[in-house]
TrEMBL record:
Subcellular location(s) per record: Cell membrane
Coiled coil: none
CDD domains: HAMP (cd06225), PDC2_MCP_like (cd12912)
Membrane topology type: Multi-pass membrane protein
Transmembrane segments: 21-42, 328-350
InterPro entries associated with the record: Bact_2-comp_sensor_kinase, dCache_1, HAMP_dom, HATPase_C_sf, HATPase_dom, Sig_transdc_His_kin-like_C, Sig_transdc_His_kin_internal
GO molecular function per UniProt: phosphorelay sensor kinase activity
Domain HAMP per the UniProt entry, residue ranges: 347-399
Protein name: histidine kinase
Length: 629
């Protein structure tokens, strides 16, 4: 049922008038490319916007992270300063010694109040350490607080804005626990919330480092703390450029900073956003609050902190939608104009096409002498010109085919003219052979037997085909008969692959070449003449090299011979009544085409090499039918 509907649909199109068909074709040719181009342009522009946004945002993130990395590196350098300030180290050692002695006295059960000397000592230690802390705190802009603890957890600090942690004891325990296995390197801790002595909640990230003496013995701890306000301006500038929101997380998934300050210190390691932002950098889409967003992320190689920018897709595609609407409007206008132009062109093309149809009908009726008359040199005129050339070519091909058939028949006729009644020859030779055997003349009987086989093969239908094995067998018999006439004068060597044994070939292509070599190339100064047939299999054809080591020929004779072989005149009968090389050349070209045939190469005294080219084709199974007696 479906096939029937399809047939009706195609029939309906086929029955349309020429004008409607041309109109339909013009519309399809115009609408499809325009629609395809519009779609590709829209998609390409969208991808370009996304790619440029991702690339530009990654650069902005990298610039911001470089600034944050530099700031944290400065904090780490500040945390290393106590190692170079002897006053801080000496006061920490004095503080440790004092509290160790006090702890020893208290453990012995002797508790005593703070003496004036002890008060003066502690005050001196505090002033010495906090004075240096104030100096350190003024080195770097934006540092919130610097805390230095002795080995017993007693803290000394200085804060620019006066905000000091109320949970300093708990913070020290956490910091010292995390730094106990370190060997003095700086440790970075992400954003933590704390309550200051001003009763306000604040957020800061911290760099902590052990303080060691000259013998690398730990004598205290320094914590350099920076308020997240140091990140606020950089993140705000990034959000203003990208029209999105930013999120900074540490390697464990804890939020260091976010644009809305709603997720500070929150652990989002199990969240979809953190899981998808795997790797050092990249981008991905997700849906938040019912809106699709493009997320771009990049990581710092120094801190392993990761910045994730989330941009609404609507912001990205705002300009893309404008481009899409403009493209659709332009496409619609072009289609309307194309419809009008198509109608005019289809009408203009219909009339000459109808005239051409009438001429074609005459050609279909067998009238090849007609011509299509055209006035203009447009496409129809060019088509008419080519149609006239096609008719002329058809007429020429008919003449060529007729000529080729005539040449083929003439070549085969001349080959047959050298033959005599085969039955008479067979019966006469058989009678002579039997008489020779009765007279015990075995050599003569063998010669007559070989001659009979040669005549049986050569006088059969030359238009038929044989196999490579049979053709080469005929050559062997011919050389054997030559050696009977000229005892041991000719030595034949055949090197043809066995798989070509059943290769289909026309008759009498090798023997005339061997015969020509034996009668015209024989060098009387040499006791024996070497003849060889070697096959070279290439990707396109078979090249047979028929060589002899005879007297050869000079360049003038060789040039004349090759020119004679390339000439397309009908072959002449050889002087001796046999089938000459020209006949072989002509029959090969008639059967296989002008690309195949004979080429001759020779040098005086060096012999002659005749190259016979035949097409490379699959072997054909040919059943050899022996002629009847």
């Amino acid at each position: 049922m479906k096939a029937k509907r399809n047939f009706s649909w195609w029939s309906w199109i086929g029955d349309m008038s020429m004008e409607r068909k041309l109109l339909l074709v013009f519309l399809i040719i115009i609408i499809l490319p325009l629609s395809f181009i519009s779609l590709i342009s829209f998609k390409s522009y969208s991808e370009s916007i996304e790619h440029n946004t991702v690339t530009y945002s990654e650069k902005l993130i990298d610039q911001m992270m470089d600034g944050i990395d530099d700031y944290i590196e400065d904090m780490k350098r500040i945390s290393s300063m106590p190692a170079y300030v002897n006053d801080i180290k000496q006061n920490l050692i004095r503080s440790n010694r004092y509290y160790e002695d006090k702890a020893r006295i208290d453990s012995g059960g002797n508790t005593s109040s703070l003496s004036p000397e002890d008060f003066d000592l502690l005050l001196t230690i505090q002033r010495g350490i906090e004075g240096n802390i104030s100096f350190i705190n003024n080195i770097k802009r934006g540092t919130n607080s610097v805390y230095i603890f002795d080995g017993k957890g007693n803290g000394y600090y200085s804060a620019k804005d006066g905000g000091v942690r109320l949970d300093l004891e708990q913070s020290y325990k956490f910091w010292s626990e995390q730094a106990k296995d370190s060997s003095g390197e700086a440790l970075l801790f992400g954003t933590q919330a704390y309550t200051s002595n001003l009763q306000s909640t604040r957020y800061a990230f911290t760099v902590v480092r052990k303080i060691v003496d000259g013998l690398w013995n730990p004598i205290g701890l320094i914590a350099v703390e920076a308020n997240i306000s140091n990140l606020e301006n950089q993140v705000a500038e990034l959000d203003n450029v990208t029209h999105g929101t930013s999120l900074i997380v540490d390697e464990s998934g804890k939020v260091v900073y976010d644009s809305n300050k709603k997720l500070l210190t929150t652990d989002i390691s199990d969240g979809e956003l953190f899981k998808k932002a795997s790797g050092s950098s990249g981008s991905f889409y997700n849906t938040q609050e019912g809106k699709e967003r493009l997320n771009i992320y990049s990581s710092s190689l120094k801190t392993n902190w990761k910045v994730i920018i989330s941009i609404p897709v609507d912001e990205l595609t705002r300009n893309v939608k404008v481009t899409r609407n403009v493209t659709l409007a332009a496409t619609f206008i072009i289609i309307v104009l194309a419809l009008i132009i198509s109608m005019v062109l289809s009408f203009a093309l219909t009339k000459p096409l109808k005239q051409m149809i009438q001429v074609m009908k005459k050609v279909q009726g067998g009238d090849l002498d007609v011509t299509f008359r055209f006035r203009r040199r447009d496409e129809i005129g060019l088509l008419g010109h080519q149609f006239n050339r096609m008719l002329a070519r058809i007429r020429q091909l008919i003449q060529d085919i007729y000529w080729i058939e005539q040449q083929k028949k003439e070549a085969e006729l001349q080959a047959l003219q050298s033959q005599i009644n085969p039955h008479f020859i067979y019966n006469t030779l058989e009678s002579i052979r039997m008489t020779a055997e009765l007279n015990d003349d075995v050599e003569a009987a063998d010669m007559i037997s070989i001659l009979g086989r040669l005549l049986r093969y050569s006088t059969s239908d030359l238009s038929g085909r044989t196999t490579m094995n049979q053709e080469l067998g005929y050559v062997r018999n011919y050389v054997e008969l030559l050696n009977c006439r000229y005892p041991n004068r000719f030595l034949l060597q055949i090197d043809v692959p066995e798989e070509l044994g059943k290769y289909a070939i026309i008759k009498l292509v090798f023997q005339p070449i061997i015969e020509n070599a034996a009668y015209h190339g024989l060098d009387d100064s040499k006791p024996q003449m070497h003849l060889s047939i070697r096959c070279e299999v290439t990707d396109r054809l078979l090249r047979f090299h028929i060589r002899d080591d005879g007297c050869g020929m000079d360049s003038a004779t060789l040039s004349l011979l090759n020119q004679h072989l390339q000439n397309e005149t009908p072959p002449k009968r050889s002087i001796n009544g046999g089938i000459g090389m020209k006949n072989v050349q002509q029959r090969i070209r008639l059967h296989y085409g002008a690309a195949y045939g004979i080429e001759v190469y020779s040098e005086p005294g060096e012999g002659t090499d005749v190259i016979l080219s035949l097409p490379l084709r699959e072997p054909e199974e040919i059943k050899n039918q022996e002629p009847e007696e």
